[in-house]
Design goal:
Blueprint (H helix, E strand, L loop, with lengths): L4 E12 L2 E12 L3 E5 L6 H8 L7 E6 L2 E2 L9 H4 L2 E4 L11 H12 L4 H14 L16 H13 L5 E5 L7 H18 L2 E6 L2 H7 L2 E6 L2 E6 L1 H6 L3 H10 L3 H11 L3
Parallel strand pairs: 3-8, 3-9, 6-7, 7-8
Antiparallel strand pairs: 1-2, 1-4, 4-5, 9-10
Length: about 260
């Protein structure tokens, strides 16, 4: 397998009882790129995410993570696979009863033997890289803005230095201005930490801003795939119709992307 391919799915299917939720998914995520999986409610995006991060197993098919087929692995063998991933959950999924320091340090408590002072130093380092200062450590989630919550959730996801970051609806529930700041944060994090990003989203604007590759998932099938430009300008009518129905001015986004590229 080419070394650039870090997440590979071959003919992945998932069935719950009589219902087939994923119907033969093929997917290749390349190292240090952002792949966005877009689709409406019920398309199978969350099921796909759970399979990628080894929280569930497919009914059939192959899932390669960093060259290793994880489908045959036992539960105890999957722990080292899961540590390759950092999860950034919808609404950040912070624990309301503990402060930012303890929220972000949680993976270190679970998986390392660092002292409290060493954990604090690592937490502060990540928060500062993401634009937060020491005053944030003692705040509780209820005291944070939507954008700050995303940064704290991202810091927690980065604590074990994962190779792959998976974002579950990162702009859900945010106003347009904050959503675009989250897009910038995803791209900045990819560049700064050299991670591969997999973004599950219904936000077409976000997809067209950050994606190197986009997949349109409809009714458990990949209905379209390619760069944002290929989805917008290609001959796949399903993709063009989905984009039109979103109401997003993707042409303006694509023009902005093109002008931002190095000459």
């Amino acid at each position: 397998m080419p070394t650039d391919d870090i997440v590979v799915l071959n003919d992945v299917r998932k069935r719950f009882g009589d219902t087939e939720v994923l119907k033969g998914i093929d997917l290749v995520c390349r190292r240090n790129e952002t792949t966005c999986v877009v689709g409406g409610s019920g398309a199978g995006k969350t099921t796909l995410l759970r399979l990628i991060v080894a929280l569930d197993k497919p009914t059939s098919g192959q899932i390669l993570i960093d060259g290793e087929d994880i489908v045959p692995l036992r539960e105890t063998q999957l722990n080292h696979v899961r540590q390759k991933f950092g999860m950034v959950y919808q609404y950040a999924a912070l624990l309301d009863s503990i402060n930012v320091l303890d929220n972000v340090a949680f993976p270190l408590v679970e998986h390392t033997k660092l002292s409290a002072s060493e954990r604090r130093a690592k937490v502060l380092e990540k928060l500062q890289i993401l634009g937060l200062d020491e005053s944030a450590l003692r705040k509780f989630p209820s005291e944070l803005s939507g954008g700050m919550r995303k940064r704290v959730g991202l810091a927690r996801a980065l604590m074990l230095d994962p190779r792959i970051l998976v974002y579950d609806e990162p702009t859900s529930g945010l106003d347009p201005l904050t959503s675009r700041s989250v897009d910038a944060l995803i791209e900045e994090t990819r560049q700064r930490f050299g991670v591969t990003s997999v973004v599950i989203t219904h936000d077409i604007a976000s997809c067209f801003i950050i994606a190197h590759q986009a997949l349109l998932l409809i009714d458990g099938k990949v209905s379209a795939r390619g760069t944002p430009e290929e989805l917008a300008h290609g001959d796949n009518e399903v993709a063009r119709d989905f984009i039109r129905q979103s109401g997003v001015d993707v042409e303006a986004i694509l023009r902005a992307r093109a002008s931002a590229r190095p000459a």
